[in-house]
């Protein structure tokens, strides 16, 4: 009877399960470190965390994405990656504990996650070859082997019952819990941790240096004087009021909303732009130097993200320099639909696989649609699309502002849905007339007396004609408008308010040059941009 009991499996003790979980965590750490090192030798975008993160972004419903941008802002990508790592850490702990009881099953679980990472890498739009699967596969193999070895230090070879070759015997569990081969486990675990940290550090270092050719090519760019320079910004376009957004947004403060977990670093000397498709009589390919050698135009243009909530921060104004997009299209024989053109949609593709559809009519209607090479007097920053990006005044970014652009295909709205349209956003999206209170801030506590209420308003390609402010439920008061730069830029405004003690609600609305008054009807950002009046609540002391 005693021998039969010894042959039966028993549940490992909590100390053994804890050491198994630790083994799983170390194996997961090793798998990610090795994967990052392999990805550094191939493409940073093939890293399993980046690949799975990108696939997660693509699969996330639009309302969830909008929620993430609203709550985390430009840190949404960091939050996503930290979330992925947290999930992987929990799974690694569980697999490690499971491996104590079923040694091969736990290791097989690690390999399964490698397969998932490989599949995600190969499914990405910018995947270049089957080698994109290598980081996930090699990392998973390394992690599975390490987990198998570490758990082997915890348990003696188990006597198995029929059909259960991986079972851990009572003697093995007892021996392990009593400290059997503890020295071997500690040495193996410490060595694995140190080696993984070293491998991870090398991988991160290599990834940090990735794109050195792109960085060198950007450093060599000298933007020539534009053939059509922007007019000087009027002196009274920027109000000297504390708390108001600067008229020109510095590059470092310019909003960034995109799906790229790794910012593409493109070598300008190897970059090419291809123009082709329906109605393109003369397909063409342009190098960066080709564009740099053309007549350049310089314009002040305010960009707005469709994910910008009422009163939100995702709007910025910059001075752009680049090539007229309409001129390039005309050289290729493209005509707008109003002149008999066969294509009504222009699909722009970036190097990371993003697709953005723009109305051909809008791009060629005479507005300053630009293939931008520079921003605020310097080559485009990598975050904002170096070497070349699109800028189209009057259209939300998701239908116009393709960064890291490398391909323009002329087609129709009926025959192709770009990335965002497939996810429930509108095909066409002109920017809505909006305004924002920059100062005082929400829940501010200003002193009674004269309080300057100020902010910005925008209606790109139409221009702002009037801004009004309302205190509580009182009448509308017309604000002072700063000088207008162009109708494609935002406009600052201000109103001195004689504030009385107590709580107050300040509300702003704008009227564009067509006479359209900003609507008070609140709508979500999906499918074509938020609308409504911006209000702030303050307490005057």
How would you describe the overall organization of this protein?
- The chain has 541 residues and is α+β, with helices and mostly antiparallel strands.
- 34% of the residues lie in helices and 21% in strands.
- It has 13 helices and 18 strands.
- The chain has helices at residues 2-7, 14-41, 48-59, 62-72, 76-101, 103-123, 134-154, 170-177, 182-209, 212-220, 288-292, 325-331, 360-363; strands at residues 272-277, 284-287, 297-304, 315-324, 345-350, 355-359, 370-375, 378-379, 389-391, 405-411, 434-439, 449-458, 464-471, 476-478, 480-481, 491-499, 502-512, 534-540.
- A 5-stranded mixed sheet has the order 2-1-10-5-6.
- The protein is globular and about 80 Å long.
- It starts with a helix and ends with a strand.
- Mean pLDDT is 89; it is low at 1-10 and 156-180.
Quick tags:
single chain, 541 residues, alpha+beta, five-stranded mixed sheet, five-stranded antiparallel sheet, 13 helices, 18 strands, globular, disordered N terminus
Summarize this structure briefly.
With 541 residues, the chain is an alpha+beta fold. Helix content is 34%, strand content 21%. The chain is globular, with a radius of gyration of 29 Å.
Q: Round the mean pLDDT to the nearest integer and report it.
A: 89
- State the oligomer: single chain
Shape: globular
The largest sheet, given as strand count, sense and whether it forms a barrel, is: 5 strands, mixed
**Helix proportion range:** 25-40%
How large is the count of helical segments?
A: 13
Residues in β-strands, percent: 15-25%
- The separation of the N and C termini measures 85 Å
What is the gyration radius calculated from CA atoms?
A: 29 Å
Poorly predicted runs: 1-10, 156-180
Spatial sequence of strands, sheet with the most strands: 2-1-10-5-6
